[in-house]
Write a structure and sequence with these properties.
It is found in: Cell membrane. The chain is of the alpha/beta class. Among the domains are: 12-97 and 149-245, P-loop containing nucleotide triphosphate hydrolases (Rossmann fold), CATH 3.40.50; 250-336 and 423-505, Rossmann fold. 34% of the residues lie in helices and 24% in strands. It has helices spanning 50-57, 80-85, 103-107, 122-136, 151-164, 181-196, 208-214, 237-245, 299-307, 329-335, 344-348, 355-360, 364-367, 375-388, 405-417, 435-450, 462-468, 491-499; strands at 12-21, 24-34, 39-43, 65-70, 73-75, 88-91, 169-173, 200-204, 217-222, 225-231, 263-272, 276-284, 288-292, 314-319, 322-323, 337-340, 423-427, 454-458, 471-476, 479-485. The protein has a 6-stranded mixed β-sheet, sandwiched between helices. Strand 17, helix 16 (435-450) and strand 18 (454-458) form a beta-alpha-beta unit. Helix 4 (122-136) packs across helix 5. The longest helix has 16 residues, at 181-196. The chain is globular. Residues 1-7 and 365-374 have low confidence and may be disordered.
Length: 505
């Protein structure tokens, strides 16, 4: 049971902390309180300093100046283990599981229950994991390896791991980015229970509807500095956005009206046993078509089969009337198709390679001369596309892993746009990126459609689906169950269809 701390003093206070890396000031003089029994949102664009604050609280970094105060006493965490021992748990945006260990072993990592002879008590490990998942209201095979789990399931395991540590301060860094509506509701129910037990929650999200639903207080950061801390009821979403970006933001969904052209992509009768079946649709030049539905409905698996990453048991894919060979991404790329995957770290980028090398990977053959790649050509192409996407970086030779999440997403987009695709498939194009970068990505998608590119988008964010799509194809249990034109698409119509309600008719 979490310790009660109902008094007015903060459970933890960030006091005038600063942190620099070389000449770059990541955080400068930031202060805010975190109260027991309260959920506190920390918001700002990518690069605002949120991740640095999280890492200082987690014991990864020490502040250069300033103090962290826990229960009224200054603390100096020299390691993540010290922070965890003090009752601070972090659920990071990107999962940090051990892929070859079981789900249950991941949950108890670092605190294995042991029997009388000092051996790991396997039964106790299983019992704890099963109890935590029961508390979360989800079913996951606790004996299976973490490798191969979906992003949604990895996040659930991370949440269970944090809850198992009985944290007094739970820091949630984009925990819902890949969760379904039902899973988000379950998570928020658990968060409410933890607050009632006296826990403090720091919640980082780019989804304003989640912030207003869960949090009682919000701190805004911009360019490493504290802008404001206010009760959530005192701020509108528009005011939060203005404080985050320091200006009035253009429309988040800058959709250009485009008259669709000829059919570019045709999918007919696509099927994969146990995953999806009878998938048929088309996308025209200049059209943005969204695949909507709950996580696990089969949307991502469909687009991966269309691109050839996954095998299919039946059906055909045609691009400009030419049938593509099944299971061959190379054939899809050669025909003019590009896929921006959901998991940018595992599937979209080689994190240790440079920005310029990542951008040019799909075109390395075209850029090579006599079988060799020359830096000048790579650099020119990389600079052209990173500048078009307004990517922030130090040098093009820097490892792509050094960039913020939003800028990594821009590099993935640059990598595929450099191939001059006729069909662009984007799977969760704005997952885990800030509101300013979302607007840039949406503006780019709209501009590409205006240039005649056929865009197929998978998104779990209903505002994004409704704001950007010309047509919405709703997927449920591996089948397309509704096709809704833009003029008729509403949150209710899409969700009724996704959940199989009669009102969808």
């Amino acid at each position: 049971m979490m310790r009660q701390n109902p008094g007015p003093a903060p459970l933890l206070e960030v006091r005038d902390v600063s942190k620099s890396f070389g000449a770059v000031a990541a955080v400068a003089g930031v202060s805010f309180p975190l109260y027991a029994g309260e959920a506190h949102a920390l918001v700002g664009e990518n690069g605002a300093g949120k991740s640095t604050i999280v890492k200082m609280l987690a014991g990864v970094h020490r502040p250069d100046t300033g103090t962290l105060v826990l229960d009224g006493a200054p603390v100096d965490f020299g390691s993540p283990a010290e922070a965890r021992a003090a009752g601070i748990a972090v659920i990071y945006q990107e999962p940090t599981l051990f892929p070859d260990l079981s789900v249950a072993e991941n949950i108890v990592m670092g605190r294995h229950p042991r029997g009388r002879l000092g051996m790991i008590d396997r039964a106790a490990v299983r019992a704890e994991a099963e109890g935590l998942f029961s508390r979360l209201g989800v079913r996951i095979d606790i004996e299976r390896p973490a490798r191969g789990l979906s992003i949604a399931d990895q996040q659930i395991v991370e949440i269970a791991k944090a809850l198992g540590a009985d944290a007094r301060l739970l820091i949630m860094d984009e925990p819902t980015a890949a969760l379904s509506l039902v899973e988000v509701e379950r998570l928020f129910t658990v968060a409410g229970t933890l607050r009632e037990e006296g826990a403090a929650i720091m919640f980082i999200s780019h989804r304003f509807e989640e912030i207003t639903a869960l949090c009682q207080r919000v701190t805004v950061m911009r360019d490493g500095r504290h802008v404001s801390t206010d009760p959530i009821d005192d701020l509108t979403v528009e005011e939060m956005v203005r404080r985050m970006v320091g200006r009035d933001l253009d429309a988040l969904f800058p959709k250009q009206e485009v008259e669709p052209g000829a059919v570019v992509l045709e999918v007919e009768g696509l099927a994969r046993q146990g995953v999806f079946r009878d998938i048929s649709f088309s996308v025209r030049a200049g059209e943005i078509v969204a695949l909507a539905g709950l996580v696990g409905s089969g949307r991502s698996e469909v687009v991966q089969a269309v691109f050839g990453v996954d095998e299919r048991d039946a059906g055909s894919v045609r691009l400009n009337g030419k049938r593509l060979r099944a299971g061959s991404p190379k054939a899809a790329m050669a025909a003019g198709m590009a896929l921006v995957p959901e998991d940018r770290r595992q599937q979209g980028l080689l994190m240790d390679l440079s920005i310029e090398r990542n951008v040019n990977l799909p075109r390395s053959g075209a850029l090579a001369r006599l079988g060799f790649l020359f830096g000048g050509g790579e650099r020119r192409e990389a600079r052209r596309w990173t500048e078009r996407l307004r990517t922030r970086y130090g040098r093009l030779t820097d490892a792509v892993g050094t960039l913020s999440g939003g800028n990594q997403q821009k590099v993935v987009l640059a990598k595929w746009l450099a191939t001059d695709p006729r069909v662009l498939i984007v799977d969760e194009p704005t997952r885990g990126i800030d509101v300013g970068t979302k607007a840039e990505v949406h503006r780019l998608m709209s501009a590409l459609a205006a240039e005649g590119v056929a865009v197929l988008m998978v998104s779990s964010e209903l505002p994004e689906v409704l704001g950007m799509a010309d047509r919405v194809l709703v997927v449920r249990e591996g089948r397309i169950v509704a096709e809704i034109p833009r003029a008729e698409a509403t949150e209710d119509s899409v969700m009724f269809a996704a959940m199989g309600q009669e009102a969808a008719a």
